[in-house]
């Protein structure tokens, strides 16, 4: 009996002490600051909703900008994607003969591969875009020039060292240099002016010519109507030839 009374008294004291602590925390400076902060956020949210309702065009523009920035952030390429794209480009060029390989594409890719092998490629993420630039030394080099902060490259010269720009899931400069990578410009440098001024055929024209060339090797198939028509034409031609011969013989006899 005495134990139950003690337990009840202890529980009631604990509830009273807990309630008093919450009251003291609520009435303290921290509690007042939290209440004012929540009230400010509530008022800001209310103003956003009211402003969006009153100006829907402006709200849609802001929402589109925020959505575009978020999409760019999600599709921002990293250093692993640049290395993958670089190796794929090098493999595609390696499958081509040096006689038909583009010198511009090959020189650009070989320069990037050399910097990668030397450990001089650097990557910087800007949130919505990425930059790949070259450095003077490998990060593991122990030279004084590579470790001294006073000899490091200033930020003003960073733009001159940029090698590629990554945006929306692509590395734009690498893709631009790999365009027509299987066309050697040196082969067309000494063409006559009349041939150099002509534009290359489009993809549709090339496909049509290839289809016509493939159809030219197929066997000739004639329908029954074509056979009958050709037979009638041959009979008419023979009769016409016979009539001309008979007329010639009659004129000769006369």
Encode the helix/strand succession as letters: HHHHHEEHHEEHHHH
- The largest sheet has its strands arranged as 1-2-3-4
Please state the overall shape, judged from the principal axes of the Cα atoms. Answer: elongated
What structural class should be given to the helix and strand makeup?
A: alpha+beta
Sheet with the most strands, sense and barrel status: 4 strands, antiparallel
End-to-end separation: 160 Å
Number of helices: 11
Low-confidence stretches: 13-18
Count of strand segments: 4
- Name the assembly state: single chain
Q: Residue share in helices?
A: 55-70%
List keywords for this structure.
single chain, about 250 residues, alpha+beta, 11 helices, elongated
Short summary:
The chain has 254 residues and is of the alpha+beta class. The protein is 65% helix and 7% strand. The longest helix is centred in the C-terminal third of the chain and has 30 residues, at 224-253.
Topology (SSEs and partners):
Elements: H1 2-27, H2 29-54, H3 56-74, H4 79-94, H5 103-117, E1 121-125, E2 130-134, H6 144-147, H7 158-161, E3 162-167, E4 170-171, H8 172-177, H9 193-196, H10 203-216, H11 224-253
Helix pairs in contact: 2-3, 4-5
């Amino acid at each position: 009996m005495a134990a139950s009374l003690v337990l009840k008294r202890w529980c009631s004291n604990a509830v009273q002490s807990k309630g008093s602590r919450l009251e003291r925390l609520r009435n303290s400076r921290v509690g007042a600051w939290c209440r004012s902060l929540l009230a400010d956020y509530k008022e800001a949210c209310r103003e956003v909703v009211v402003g969006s309702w009153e100006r829907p065009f402006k709200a849609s523009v802001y929402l589109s900008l925020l959505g575009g920035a978020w999409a760019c952030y999600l599709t921002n390429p990293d250093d692993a994607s640049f290395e993958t794209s670089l190796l794929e480009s090098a493999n595609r060029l390696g499958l081509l003969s040096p006689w038909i390989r583009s010198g511009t594409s090959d020189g650009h890719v070989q320069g990037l591969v050399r910097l990668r092998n030397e450990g001089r490629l650097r990557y910087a993420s800007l949130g919505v875009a990425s930059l790949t630039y070259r450095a003077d030394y490998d990060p593991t080099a122990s030279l004084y020039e590579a470790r001294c902060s006073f000899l490091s490259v200033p930020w003003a010269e960073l733009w001159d060292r940029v090698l590629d720009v990554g945006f929306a899931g692509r590395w734009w400069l690498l893709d631009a240099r790999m365009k027509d990578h299987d066309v050697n410009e040196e082969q067309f440098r000494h063409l006559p002016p009349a041939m150099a001024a002509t534009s290359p055929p489009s993809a549709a024209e090339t496909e049509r010519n290839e289809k016509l060339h493939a159809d030219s090797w197929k066997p000739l198939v004639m329908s029954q109507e074509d056979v009958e028509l050709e037979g009638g034409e041959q009979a008419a031609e023979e009769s016409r030839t016979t009539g001309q011969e008979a007329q010639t013989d009659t004129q000769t006899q006369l």
